[in-house]
Design brief:
Length: about 325
């Protein structure tokens, strides 16, 4: 509306002692756009009603009833690669486009996937704990029999987008053959990634890496039926979203040896519920607390890219003037 200030509201701000929005605020202020960080849930409900753009960090889900309160919103930005914290169907009904920040941590997440894969393949944490306790005589340890040469193994990747493709390229440096399942693409730019149906991938893979997005079609992608199709002793790595896996089914597969070891950066829920975690205490599980995207460079890229994408949304909607050069002038 003419004359009204243009405002971007963070729906669920990361606490100030953990995060700063100075970069985004500076990028927006240069175009006379205000960044608002509400002080709590009550203030949030009031502020987002008249927000031009809403940013969702993922601490809390932006649900349908809340989306329906938005009176002038022209876009929702997920402060992440994943978009599962926003009710996409409700946003579509409201005519509000939802975007993410797709490229800020591709290197970091793919690196972390390889770190978990190598740690699992080499049973690194088990041997590190033995060494830390002073146990250097490992002859006859059961872990010795489970370690395999990497070169010649088949790595199955679920989700062959930016991160999945990077994982494949990096894994091939260790001698893995790479195959992938992705129902949303028919070809890749990487000729060394063979796209196969999910049953074929499950039956051929010596190790699996999950890089898929979480949506209604992928939730519970690996369940009882899928685990039953795996080769015995397969390595499973998840750097995407915890809800891609039925964790009760995974616990059974870990107990039976169908999955030799699971290396997980993500869980569902996060953190796992105390007293109700099906993977608690299992010796063949490696976990990190959802840190795959972390690096100083990734944080800088996220802040800068988020600010730039918000400006693009505001320009395309006409809320602020476009800075694009008129090529016809």
């Amino acid at each position: 509306m003419p004359g009204e200030p243009v405002r971007v509201v963070v729906f669920d701000p990361i606490p100030p002692e953990e995060w700063s929005y100075d970069v985004e605020a500076g990028i927006l202020a240069a175009r006379r756009v205000e960044l608002v960080l509400p002080s709590g849930p009550v203030a949030t409900r009031q502020e987002i009603r008249d927000a031009d753009v809403v940013i969702v960090t993922g601490i809390r889900p932006l649900d349908g009833p809340t989306i329906r309160t938005l009176r002038r919103c022209i876009g929702i930005l997920c402060y992440s690669i994943g978009m599962d914290k926003v009710d996409g169907a409700a946003a579509a009904v409201a005519g509000i486009p939802v975007r993410n920040v797709p490229d800020y941590c591709t290197e970091e997440v793919s690196d972390h996937a390889l770190a978990l894969l190598l740690a699992a393949e080499r049973r690194l944490t088990a041997f590190a704990e033995l060494a830390a306790s002073g146990q250097w005589d490992v002859v006859g340890r059961p872990e010795n029999e489970s370690i395999r040469r990497l070169r010649g193994q088949t790595l199955g990747i679920l989700g062959a987008g930016r991160i999945g493709s990077k994982v494949a390229r990096k894994a091939r440096a260790f001698g893995f053959r790479t195959i992938a399942f992705d129902p949303y693409i028919s070809s890749t730019e990487d000729p060394e990634i063979e796209l196969v149906p999910l049953p074929d991938l499950l039956g051929q893979a010596d190790a699996l890496v999950l890089c898929a997005s979480l949506n209604d079609g992928s939730r519970g992608l690996l369940g009882w039926n899928e685990f039953a199709q795996l080769r015995p002793g397969v390595i499973l790595v998840n750097v995407a979203r915890g809800a891609l896996i039925d964790e009760a089914a995974l616990a059974e597969a870990l107990g039976s040896g169908r999955v030799g070891l699971a290396a997980l950066d993500v869980r569902s829920p996060e953190p796992p519920a105390k007293g109700a975690d099906p993977l608690a205490g299992l010796p063949n599980v490696i976990q990190t607390p959802h840190i795959a995207a972390l690096s100083r460079e990734a944080r800088e890229d996220l802040r800068r890219m988020a600010g730039e994408i918000v400006l693009q949304m505001l320009e395309s909607s006409g809320r602020i003037p476009s800075t694009a050069v008129d090529q016809t002038a």
